[in-house]
Specification:
Helix content is about 45%, strand content about 15%. It is of the alpha/beta class and about 250 residues long.
Protein backbone atom coordinates (compact mmCIF):
# COMPACT_ATOMS: atom_id res chain seq x y z
CA UNK A 1 0.00 0.00 0.00
CA UNK A 2 1.32 3.44 -0.93
CA UNK A 3 1.74 6.12 1.71
CA UNK A 4 -1.32 8.01 2.95
CA UNK A 5 -2.15 10.93 0.69
CA UNK A 6 -2.90 14.44 1.94
CA UNK A 7 -4.64 17.28 0.05
CA UNK A 8 -1.27 18.70 -1.08
CA UNK A 9 -0.61 15.41 -2.89
CA UNK A 10 -3.72 15.95 -5.02
CA UNK A 11 -2.35 19.34 -6.02
CA UNK A 12 0.98 17.70 -6.87
CA UNK A 13 -0.87 15.18 -9.04
CA UNK A 14 -2.31 18.07 -11.02
CA UNK A 15 1.11 19.68 -11.48
CA UNK A 16 2.44 16.35 -12.72
CA UNK A 17 -0.47 15.89 -15.14
CA UNK A 18 -1.93 12.88 -13.32
CA UNK A 19 -5.70 12.55 -13.07
CA UNK A 20 -7.45 12.25 -9.69
CA UNK A 21 -9.85 9.34 -9.18
CA UNK A 22 -12.49 10.17 -6.57
CA UNK A 23 -15.38 8.19 -5.15
CA UNK A 24 -18.30 9.11 -2.93
CA UNK A 25 -18.54 6.39 -0.28
CA UNK A 26 -20.72 6.15 2.81
CA UNK A 27 -19.48 3.11 4.71
CA UNK A 28 -16.44 1.02 5.62
CA UNK A 29 -16.95 -1.83 3.10
CA UNK A 30 -17.43 0.46 0.09
CA UNK A 31 -14.51 2.66 1.12
CA UNK A 32 -12.28 -0.40 1.54
CA UNK A 33 -13.26 -1.69 -1.89
CA UNK A 34 -12.48 1.71 -3.41
CA UNK A 35 -9.11 1.75 -1.64
CA UNK A 36 -8.15 -1.58 -3.18
CA UNK A 37 -9.40 -0.37 -6.56
CA UNK A 38 -7.01 2.62 -6.53
CA UNK A 39 -9.07 5.62 -5.44
CA UNK A 40 -7.20 8.84 -4.58
CA UNK A 41 -9.99 10.73 -2.82
CA UNK A 42 -12.85 9.34 -0.74
CA UNK A 43 -15.67 11.83 -0.30
CA UNK A 44 -18.30 11.12 2.34
CA UNK A 45 -21.25 12.86 0.74
CA UNK A 46 -24.18 14.29 2.67
CA UNK A 47 -26.27 12.51 0.03
CA UNK A 48 -26.00 9.60 2.48
CA UNK A 49 -29.02 11.07 4.26
CA UNK A 50 -31.13 10.42 1.18
CA UNK A 51 -29.36 7.30 -0.08
CA UNK A 52 -29.02 5.28 3.13
CA UNK A 53 -31.24 6.96 5.73
CA UNK A 54 -34.27 7.59 3.53
CA UNK A 55 -34.46 11.30 4.33
CA UNK A 56 -36.51 13.32 1.86
CA UNK A 57 -35.15 16.72 2.86
CA UNK A 58 -31.40 17.27 2.62
CA UNK A 59 -31.65 19.83 5.43
CA UNK A 60 -32.70 17.08 7.85
CA UNK A 61 -29.20 15.58 7.80
CA UNK A 62 -27.12 16.60 10.82
CA UNK A 63 -23.46 16.86 11.78
CA UNK A 64 -23.96 14.10 14.36
CA UNK A 65 -25.22 11.77 11.64
CA UNK A 66 -22.43 12.75 9.25
CA UNK A 67 -19.76 11.96 11.84
CA UNK A 68 -20.92 8.34 12.07
CA UNK A 69 -20.32 7.82 8.35
CA UNK A 70 -17.20 9.96 8.28
CA UNK A 71 -15.57 7.86 10.98
CA UNK A 72 -16.46 4.65 9.15
CA UNK A 73 -14.89 5.76 5.89
CA UNK A 74 -11.91 7.21 7.72
CA UNK A 75 -11.19 3.82 9.30
CA UNK A 76 -10.99 2.29 5.83
CA UNK A 77 -8.68 4.88 4.30
CA UNK A 78 -5.08 3.77 4.33
CA UNK A 79 -4.13 5.67 1.15
CA UNK A 80 -6.86 8.01 -0.05
CA UNK A 81 -7.52 11.55 1.09
CA UNK A 82 -10.77 11.61 3.10
CA UNK A 83 -13.21 14.48 2.74
CA UNK A 84 -16.29 14.59 4.96
CA UNK A 85 -19.13 16.80 3.75
CA UNK A 86 -20.42 19.74 5.71
CA UNK A 87 -24.20 19.13 5.97
CA UNK A 88 -26.27 21.55 3.89
CA UNK A 89 -28.23 22.85 6.86
CA UNK A 90 -24.97 23.70 8.63
CA UNK A 91 -23.72 25.64 5.60
CA UNK A 92 -26.92 27.67 5.61
CA UNK A 93 -26.59 28.36 9.34
CA UNK A 94 -23.60 30.65 8.81
CA UNK A 95 -19.82 30.75 9.34
CA UNK A 96 -19.98 30.29 13.12
CA UNK A 97 -21.90 27.02 12.76
CA UNK A 98 -19.57 25.92 9.96
CA UNK A 99 -16.50 26.63 12.08
CA UNK A 100 -17.87 24.62 15.00
CA UNK A 101 -18.81 21.71 12.74
CA UNK A 102 -15.40 21.82 11.04
CA UNK A 103 -13.65 21.39 14.38
CA UNK A 104 -15.82 18.35 15.12
CA UNK A 105 -15.21 16.83 11.67
CA UNK A 106 -11.47 17.28 12.13
CA UNK A 107 -11.33 15.98 15.70
CA UNK A 108 -13.97 13.23 15.63
CA UNK A 109 -13.79 11.92 12.06
CA UNK A 110 -10.08 12.66 11.55
CA UNK A 111 -10.89 13.91 8.07
CA UNK A 112 -8.30 15.50 5.80
CA UNK A 113 -10.77 18.09 4.56
CA UNK A 114 -14.44 18.97 4.30
CA UNK A 115 -16.59 19.75 1.29
CA UNK A 116 -18.75 22.89 1.48
CA UNK A 117 -21.55 22.98 -1.08
CA UNK A 118 -22.04 26.57 -2.23
CA UNK A 119 -23.60 25.84 -5.65
CA UNK A 120 -25.74 28.71 -6.98
CA UNK A 121 -25.16 30.53 -3.65
CA UNK A 122 -21.47 31.34 -4.02
CA UNK A 123 -21.80 34.94 -2.93
CA UNK A 124 -24.01 34.22 0.09
CA UNK A 125 -22.01 31.23 1.34
CA UNK A 126 -18.46 32.28 0.46
CA UNK A 127 -17.63 33.08 4.08
CA UNK A 128 -18.29 29.42 4.94
CA UNK A 129 -15.18 28.54 2.94
CA UNK A 130 -13.07 30.92 4.99
CA UNK A 131 -14.58 29.57 8.20
CA UNK A 132 -13.37 26.04 7.40
CA UNK A 133 -9.83 27.27 6.81
CA UNK A 134 -9.88 29.33 9.99
CA UNK A 135 -10.95 26.20 11.90
CA UNK A 136 -7.83 24.44 10.65
CA UNK A 137 -9.09 22.05 7.98
CA UNK A 138 -8.54 21.92 4.23
CA UNK A 139 -11.63 23.00 2.30
CA UNK A 140 -13.11 21.42 -0.82
CA UNK A 141 -15.88 23.69 -2.17
CA UNK A 142 -18.54 22.41 -4.54
CA UNK A 143 -19.64 25.15 -6.91
CA UNK A 144 -21.48 25.56 -10.18
CA UNK A 145 -25.05 24.46 -10.80
CA UNK A 146 -27.48 21.83 -9.57
CA UNK A 147 -27.72 18.48 -11.32
CA UNK A 148 -30.94 17.61 -13.13
CA UNK A 149 -30.91 20.31 -15.78
CA UNK A 150 -28.91 20.72 -19.01
CA UNK A 151 -25.22 21.52 -18.53
CA UNK A 152 -24.64 25.26 -18.37
CA UNK A 153 -22.53 26.54 -21.25
CA UNK A 154 -23.47 30.15 -22.03
CA UNK A 155 -21.31 33.21 -21.42
CA UNK A 156 -23.10 34.06 -18.17
CA UNK A 157 -22.32 30.61 -16.75
CA UNK A 158 -18.73 30.91 -17.96
CA UNK A 159 -18.21 34.27 -16.28
CA UNK A 160 -19.92 33.14 -13.07
CA UNK A 161 -17.84 29.99 -12.77
CA UNK A 162 -14.55 31.67 -13.63
CA UNK A 163 -15.14 34.45 -11.12
CA UNK A 164 -15.90 32.18 -8.19
CA UNK A 165 -13.39 29.46 -9.06
CA UNK A 166 -10.57 32.00 -8.93
CA UNK A 167 -11.99 33.55 -5.77
CA UNK A 168 -12.03 30.14 -4.10
CA UNK A 169 -8.45 29.44 -5.11
CA UNK A 170 -7.36 32.83 -3.80
CA UNK A 171 -9.19 32.13 -0.52
CA UNK A 172 -7.17 28.95 -0.01
CA UNK A 173 -9.36 26.10 -1.30
CA UNK A 174 -7.48 22.82 -1.78
CA UNK A 175 -9.53 21.69 -4.77
CA UNK A 176 -12.93 22.34 -6.36
CA UNK A 177 -15.84 20.10 -7.31
CA UNK A 178 -17.39 21.83 -10.31
CA UNK A 179 -20.93 20.72 -11.11
CA UNK A 180 -23.03 20.70 -14.27
CA UNK A 181 -21.15 22.89 -16.72
CA UNK A 182 -20.04 22.23 -20.28
CA UNK A 183 -16.83 20.37 -21.07
CA UNK A 184 -15.44 23.60 -22.48
CA UNK A 185 -15.94 25.43 -19.18
CA UNK A 186 -14.46 22.51 -17.25
CA UNK A 187 -11.42 22.63 -19.49
CA UNK A 188 -10.87 26.35 -19.20
CA UNK A 189 -11.27 26.41 -15.42
CA UNK A 190 -8.92 23.46 -15.03
CA UNK A 191 -6.26 25.12 -17.19
CA UNK A 192 -6.38 28.47 -15.39
CA UNK A 193 -6.41 27.22 -11.78
CA UNK A 194 -3.43 25.84 -9.88
CA UNK A 195 -5.66 23.65 -7.70
CA UNK A 196 -7.43 20.54 -9.03
CA UNK A 197 -10.89 20.84 -10.57
CA UNK A 198 -12.97 17.65 -10.67
CA UNK A 199 -16.61 16.82 -11.25
CA UNK A 200 -19.16 14.09 -11.74
CA UNK A 201 -20.18 15.00 -15.29
CA UNK A 202 -16.81 15.83 -16.81
CA UNK A 203 -14.46 14.24 -19.29
CA UNK A 204 -10.64 14.18 -19.37
CA UNK A 205 -10.49 17.96 -19.79
CA UNK A 206 -10.83 18.24 -15.99
CA UNK A 207 -8.23 17.19 -13.44
CA UNK A 208 -10.20 14.13 -12.39
CA UNK A 209 -13.59 12.50 -12.01
CA UNK A 210 -15.75 11.74 -8.99
CA UNK A 211 -18.20 8.84 -8.94
CA UNK A 212 -21.03 8.31 -6.49
CA UNK A 213 -20.31 4.67 -5.81
CA UNK A 214 -23.88 3.69 -4.90
CA UNK A 215 -25.03 4.98 -8.28
CA UNK A 216 -22.06 3.50 -10.16
CA UNK A 217 -22.71 -0.03 -8.91
CA UNK A 218 -26.50 0.26 -8.81
CA UNK A 219 -26.93 -0.10 -5.06
CA UNK A 220 -30.31 1.59 -4.90
CA UNK A 221 -33.85 0.21 -5.05
CA UNK A 222 -34.79 1.82 -8.36
CA UNK A 223 -31.86 0.01 -9.99
CA UNK A 224 -33.98 -3.16 -9.82
CA UNK A 225 -35.99 -1.78 -12.71
CA UNK A 226 -33.06 -0.82 -14.95
CA UNK A 227 -33.29 -2.07 -18.54
CA UNK A 228 -30.16 -0.42 -19.96
CA UNK A 229 -27.84 -3.31 -19.15
CA UNK A 230 -25.81 -1.27 -16.67
CA UNK A 231 -24.39 -3.03 -13.60
CA UNK A 232 -26.83 -3.27 -10.72
CA UNK A 233 -25.81 -4.53 -7.32
CA UNK A 234 -29.46 -4.23 -6.35
CA UNK A 235 -30.41 -7.03 -8.75
CA UNK A 236 -27.69 -9.32 -7.39
CA UNK A 237 -28.82 -8.67 -3.82
CA UNK A 238 -32.48 -9.12 -4.77
CA UNK A 239 -31.89 -12.44 -6.54
CA UNK A 240 -29.91 -13.86 -3.63
CA UNK A 241 -32.43 -12.59 -1.06
CA UNK A 242 -35.47 -13.81 -3.01
CA UNK A 243 -34.04 -17.32 -3.26
CA UNK A 244 -33.02 -17.41 0.40
CA UNK A 245 -36.38 -16.17 1.63
CA UNK A 246 -38.27 -18.56 -0.65
CA UNK A 247 -36.26 -21.46 0.77
CA UNK A 248 -37.19 -20.39 4.29
CA UNK A 249 -40.88 -20.18 3.39
CA UNK A 250 -40.62 -23.66 1.89
CA UNK A 251 -38.81 -25.04 4.93
CA UNK A 252 -35.87 -25.99 2.72
CA UNK A 253 -32.97 -23.89 3.89
Amino acid sequence: MADKLIPADLQRMKREGRKIAAGVAYDFPMAKICERAGVDLLSVGDSVGRALLGQDNVDDFTVDEMLVFGRAVGRAAEHAVVSVDMPTATCKAGPKAVMEATRRIKAEAHADMTKVDIRTMEEQLFDDVRAVIEAGLAVYPQMGFQVGEPAHSDSAAHDHVMKWAHALEDAGASLIDLTNVSHEIYGEVSKTLRIPVIGGQTGPEADGRIYVMAALVGYRPDALDRTDGAPTAARLIYDLAEKAFANVHAGAW
